[in-house]
């Protein structure tokens, strides 16, 4: 390659890799596979080796990929958090072993560990207590996410046992189990939120959240894999792993002390298949030289230790034929394309279907019925089509035109500017939407009507006893018809009606969530209910009033106003009101109500361990205080919790505004 051409290629690759790093680390929504990313990075490494004069000092080949954000406090790492050299080839491992052998002679051992596919975290403990949790960030500085880390149950707040150093740092990987991922991602999709591609992205997206109470709802876990400290009493990595286990840290049982590279390869071969039986994703095996002294001798490159390497498994993929593309309609009316495949064995299971996400994805892949496609099951649980084998495309295959009509009711589909999904607008006449809405309404997180399960709803819909949510509350007058149905004895009819009657006591926020307004998930419903207090206030709120609510963006606000603009929906709510459902927040009797805060102004910032922000706000107002929405000289007190933005802190300090804790606030009331 000529230097001119090399320069152009290097520039293009650099720009592309920087973008992918951003998608992966900051947005947690990568657009290419890890394998492709690694191939491109390797190409850049090779080019820079051939033309060293063209290497930029901030080339992605020299940097750890992540970034720090502005939303958390930045913390300097005491020991840099590096990346790991990686390879997909066994020959590279043998070369690695030869390099080590050359430097150390033959007397050394390796430790093999699973390469957990999550995000790395540095935890600092002081006198046996968790002091800090910091992300890798750019490798030298990271985000202080301590409050989020504290919600992870397997990370000890306080150590047990003895012998731990007064101060040390421990590194590990935060991840989400596959089962939790599948469940939570399905909920996201149901709420109209963008699903995450895999558990890693979900875990990483979660750790970036500002609201720790949200983080606490998402089950994360953490394996620890490296101990750092000054003058540690251990000579080897293996020994230290045993010690940290005894202090209460979770260390994977799948580790192996190896005498030579052949034993390492055995471990790698073993997990080639075993990895699919684990409850969490791994993307490879990490191989580390065991002795600390030898690690020191080997040292580091700019980006990774020379004493460790990771072997990555290629995502499993297989070719098969795309028989047809069909469309599914969800509860919200979103139409999802599904690829129906010639059944094929992949990663231990028979795959018949793959997701195609939306029209953009079909266009991107240019996938057509009759094509031969490459299907991948990597970290992801749901197989997906990664590309079309164009060499095998029969002549004259017509391009796929995304359906323009609903496969269930024939309505013309609509799409909002800027959104990926097409929707069937016929929400009161499209069977899967009608059924889905009722199922959502009776679901565990909404009205929780146990006795009216998903199957029963379908059965009653088919028997024309249910068409609409409000019909549920009319079932009590249809006992005779109910009793005639299959599998419906006197007792189950009684149960059914009783469950329905009981649901009338469900609080407003559950009813609101149950209505299934697009983008109004559980948390949003709670926020809206607390803010507007009753359905009429909410229904009459303007876009501006809606977006003024903390964490309600324009997308949600628009969806809410659209919902209430429809007469059908207003009629439904009127009917449900008459049926006796809760459409206002039950005013909690605030025992503390007084006028102790009269004439004083407050602003709340950050997160609190014992209180929700809304709760504090209610408390302040119930005691005569007034809330302000920004920091100005008019503000009397800033009630600050964890994770308060640094700019707010500075502004308050500059204006000399007293910063108080939630506990200080409580004592003002006593
Ligand atoms: N698809 C994309 O767009 C995209 C973009 C950027 C990066 N990536 C992927 O991420 C990789 C780079 O990420 P990276 O720099 O974090 O490297 P890496 O993930 O390949 O290896 C380093 C990381 O491994 C983790 N790890 C897991 N188990 C471990 C164990 N037992 N011991 C030590 N560390 C362990 C640690 O978090 C450590 O930071 C790339 O190779 C690529 O595959 C993909
Ligand atoms: Zn339809």
Automatic annotation (TrEMBL):
Keyword entries, A-Z: DNA damage, DNA repair, DNA replication, Ligase, Magnesium, Manganese, Metal-binding, NAD, Zinc
Record GO terms (molecular function): DNA ligase (NAD+) activity; metal ion binding
Superkingdom, taxonomy of origin: Bacteria
SMART domains documented for this protein: BRCT, LIGANc
BP GO terms, sorted: DNA repair; DNA replication
Cofactor: Mg(2+); Mn(2+)
EC number(s) reported in the record: 6.5.1.2
Any single Gene Ontology cellular-component annotation: cytosol
Record bears the keyword Ligase: yes
Positions bound to NAD(+): 34-38, 83-84, 113, 136, 173, 288, 312
Residue numbers annotated as active site: 115 (n6-amp-lysine intermediate)
Keyword Manganese found: yes
A Pfam cross-reference name: DNA_ligase_aden
Family annotation (InterPro entries): BRCT_dom (IPR001357), BRCT_dom_sf (IPR036420), DisA/LigA_HHH (IPR041663), DNA_ligase (IPR001679), DNA_ligase_AS (IPR018239), DNA_ligase_CS (IPR033136), DNAligase_adenylation (IPR013839), DNAligase_N (IPR013840)
Annotated residues for binding of Zn(2+): 406, 409, 424, 430
Domain BRCT per the UniProt entry, residue ranges: 592-670
PROSITE patterns documented for this protein: BRCT (PS50172), DNA_LIGASE_N1 (PS01055), DNA_LIGASE_N2 (PS01056)
Catalyzed chemical reaction(s): NAD(+) + (deoxyribonucleotide)n-3'-hydroxyl + 5'-phospho-(deoxyribonucleotide)m = (deoxyribonucleotide)n+m + AMP + beta-nicotinamide D-nucleotide
Family that this chain belongs to: Belongs to the NAD-dependent DNA ligase family. LigA subfamily.
UniProt xrefs under NCBIfam families: dnlj (TIGR00575), PRK07956.1 (NF005932)
Function: DNA ligase that catalyzes the formation of phosphodiester linkages between 5'-phosphoryl and 3'-hydroxyl groups in double-stranded DNA using NAD as a coenzyme and as the energy source for the reaction. It is essential for DNA replication and repair of damaged DNA.
Name of the protein this chain belongs to: DNA ligase
Native organism: Solitalea canadensis (strain ATCC 29591 / DSM 3403 / JCM 21819 / LMG 8368 / NBRC 15130 / NCIMB 12057 / USAM 9D) (Flexibacter canadensis)
Lineage: Bacteria, Pseudomonadati, Bacteroidota, Sphingobacteriia, Sphingobacteriales
